From TrEMBL, chain A:
This is NADH-quinone oxidoreductase subunit M. NCBIfam families: NDH_I_M (TIGR01972). One of its GO terms (cellular component) is membrane. InterPro entries: NADH_Q_OxRdtase_chainM/4 (IPR010227), NADH_UbQ_OxRdtase (IPR003918), ND/Mrp_TM (IPR001750). GO terms for molecular function: NADH dehydrogenase (ubiquinone) activity; NADH dehydrogenase activity; ubiquinone binding.
UniProtKB/TrEMBL annotation, chain B:
This is NADH:ubiquinone oxidoreductase subunit L. The chain crosses the membrane at residues 6-23, 35-56, 87-105, 117-135, 141-159, 180-201, 213-230, 251-269, 281-302, 309-330, 342-360, 372-394, 414-435, 456-477, 505-524, 606-626. It is found in: Endomembrane system; Membrane. It is a multi-pass membrane protein. GO terms for cellular component: endomembrane system; membrane. Residues 135-425 form the NADH:quinone oxidoreductase/Mrp antiporter transmembrane domain. The keyword ATP-binding does not apply. Residues 68-118 form the NADH-Ubiquinone oxidoreductase (complex I) chain 5 N-terminal domain. It comes from Flavobacterium enshiense DK69. Its main location: membrane.
Amino acid sequence: MDVTIVLILLLIGALATFFSGNALASKVALFFSVAALGASLVILNQFNQGIDCGFSAVWMKNPNVLFSLKVDGLAIAMILLNTALIPLIILSSFGNNFSNPKNFYSLVMFMAFAMAGTFLASDGFLYYIFWELSLVPIYFIALIWGNDDIAERKKAVIKFFIYTFVGSLFMLAAFIYMYQKAGSFQLDKLYALELSSKEEFWIFLAFFLAYAIKIPLIPFHTWQANVYQKAPTVGTMLLSGIMLKMGFYSVIRWQLPIAPNAAKELQYFIISLSIAGVIYGSIVALKQKDLKRLLAYSSLAHVGLIAAGCYTLTVDGLRGAILQMIAHGFVIVGLFFAAEIIYRRYETRIISEMGGIRQQTPKFASMFMILVLASVALPGTFNFIGEFTVLYSLFTKNIALAVLGGTTIILGAFYMLRMFQHAMLGETNAKTFADVTLTEGIVMVVIIGFLLFFGLFPKPIIELIAPSIKEILVHIK
Amino acid sequence: METGLVLLLLLAPFVGFLTNIFLGKQLGKNASGYLGSLAVIVSFVVTTVFFLQVSASKQPITVHLFDWFTLDSFNVNFDILLDQLSLLWLMFVTGIGSLIHIYSISYMHDDENIHKFFSYLNLFIFFMITLVVGSNLLIMFIGWEGVGLCSYLLIGFWYKNQDYNDAAKKAFIMNRIGDLGFLVGIFIIGYVFNTLDFMTIKQAVLAGEAKANLAWIGIATLCLFIGACGKSAQIPLYTWLPDAMAGPTPVSALIHAATMVTAGIFMITRLNFLFDLTPDVQTVIAAVGVATSVLAASIGLMQNDIKKVLAYSTVSQLGLMFLALGLGAYEVAVFHVVTHAFFKACLFLGSGSVIHALHGEQDMRRMGGLKSVMTITYTTFLIATLAISGIPPFAGFFSKDEILMVAFHKDKVLWVLASIASIMTAFYMFRLLYLTFFKEFRGTEEQKHHLHESPALITLPLIVLGILSAVGGALSIPGNSWLNNFLQPVFAHKAHAEHHLDNTAYMLMGLAVVGALIGIGIAYSKYIKKGEIPAEDDQITGFANVVYQKYHVDESYMRIFVKPIYAISKFLRDYIETGLSDIVFGFGNVAEGLSLQGKKLQNGNIGFYLFAFVFGLCSIVFYLFFLR
């Protein structure tokens, strides 16, 4: 069995969801997403036995485009992140009443399909198509099912769409330029391409623009907080949990090995920018009034650290970045879900309108607390492994980088505990807070279980990604 | 066999935590408390078994549990190291931990969330054991952050009160400042030694491999010391500890006096071979320690909240321990950690007994005359007070005396300062004793009617700790120290020669006792003879008020650090964020503006098109004929 099965399941899932009608849509989507997860686990198993699960077929003769999918440890890790989070995200939405659910869940499945394609494609043209394809469903999800005033939302979502789309066009230009030289979009052909330092520089920058907007890094982040806030929580989870990892994945898979010399030249500049983002995001998060916005800025801070790890171009930096991508994916989905759970009961996202919840629902309070602790990378959670590894890699570059990046452990605790205190603690709230439902509980427990388990036994993931990191670093060296 | 026992040691409190958190409510209040206590007692018994084994064999026990994670140049394994140092620490952590759990069954009985209390307390013990038995820096760091978490949860145990939550948050964040230092220290050590394992580092140091990297090691030890400052409440990171008194009193006794706050001392002692290499950092440690000791003691002179006095006393005593560490006298610091654990736990639990009897009153101005009603509490409190004041033959005398002696031999200034701190300690402790237990009762009539000695579950731990405070000094009697011999394998150098008894030693002991008696004498004349009662808050003026207000350090931190960060945050939120957004929209607006202008041209007016056509043609002709 090769990896196309995952893509097929997700695509069929999208269609089946659409045709199953409104009543069944969410359940059909859940079914196919779980099936895709199962298929990914089978692929993982095959991969561990040394079977090549990649796929390649000629798609177009002119231009020379292959439908080729590459499967290595890194790709599998990202596919698993995708297919593990999608069922959780779908399940988390069972408490919502969306209008037109068949369209909604179909778009979610289609987005999962496009993102999976992005993580697998090893042909630049195919990769670009998947990359852009993933933008379409999230655009509609945010626009149609989002919250707040429609005009404001439209403005934010369209800005997001155009901004990321324009960024990606530069990437497309870079691909076309390279195609002129290599006669192929194939990953290994592009790796092997001999580029002058000037060419590398511009190609690197073109990629950087696409990825810096997608991730986002400061100062390209202005779309983020608004869209995270206004999208429905499912959309926010898709964006923050999975889609932004497409950016990092592309940095590691495409940008760094294709333009290694430019990367080396610019690495300190980008690391500094990323770490500035860590501090900037943390400080802006402190005084946010809206819980989802606060989490958006916390995400901005965390992705800054991941980016810094990527651009150290060291084994530890890349490893830490990948681990942190996975850990962040789970924790941010959990945190946004906690915000959603509160919203379902209090119909507010404003932190000052919450408070006094813990007394009413100790269960939810404990789960939320654990997520907060994972977010501030308490040792024993998976997030600690990633954060420690990234900070250590920064230290091996320069001690000042580690200290500045390390302020995240102070500032992160500052804004997260402050938020928790005002959202959850204090005198018992007059409004009753119904206990978490079964499905809500399942989603939370699975996420927490994942973060705690791999906090103590990260070895399987570390071993899964190790060979890919080595291979990529060979191209960079 | 050993792996099984180690797992039992670690997991007993963890299982206690899980059981109480999930089933505690169903179990009922008493069952929950007894279960929590039992979990710690199991760990205590296992510790005793290991302790006896290692005392006899003198061989440390190492157990490999599992591989944790990998870095490029080294692996981090989940290994356990049970040597003399960790076992000594475990003995008093689990021993005093058991006593305080038992005490809490009664003390917390009326709290609706008692099962949560015990589950957090168990979790704390679990992390404290992890901290102590880890065989490398990162396992220690798990415990280190874990106890910080439990401290956060327990300071904010009464979470309806946002002031308490503030205190909890402050403790966590200030600790995290130290933790960043700790982390950087870990990075450097990993980088220099390619391992984080204590034994391997020690061997490398003893083999002289560290010589080439002394500068790095200096930065590392300094960073680690910053970490220790956070956890063990030293200048400048001490202000969280007095606030931490917001937590229930057993928590103050266990976490914020006897065990967690000594973690910094444990860490430095554990890495003594590194600190020995960096004398400059040792000087810093000694200076910070003695400064903290004097500063905290001076604040303690003026406080009226019984727990605040004890909190500042703890900070001050920890300062003395750091002084000893800075002077390279690790075994002396450890000795004082142990005796301090006995008498400070006793004092805190005693104050809890008093607060319990007075239904929550903590202001000493509203106490007095409890001696006759609460005899057991009073007697044990008196013993512990004598111990902390340094009166022979009580435990604190021996340990404090050794610190003073070491200081005297190294640097007379340090000795003078430490002696001043000790005199102040004797004064404020007796001030506390007199105000609480002597003279007339000054509380309400209502309280007076209900005055009573606490039940056996409270007095029993007090008695045990009282006895330990009385005889604990036997661990290390000058000239013939069991403790020093026991700990010797842990250290890279020989124990100090100062332990020998000579005339200087006797003279110093005499001076120390005289100093303590002076402090006690002043307290006696003020509060017994003259019968003074500290002034009400609004009547404290001048310098006294500055001291009473803790030198306004908290307010300064607020003004220098917290408020500016808030201001920056608001500024970034309101101006920079919107500004950046406008710039991006600016690109869009420019494009839109251009297209709007362009749109005007295509207005469907044939005349305009013709005009444009003719104008364009004329321009071309003009250009071709006249300008070329």
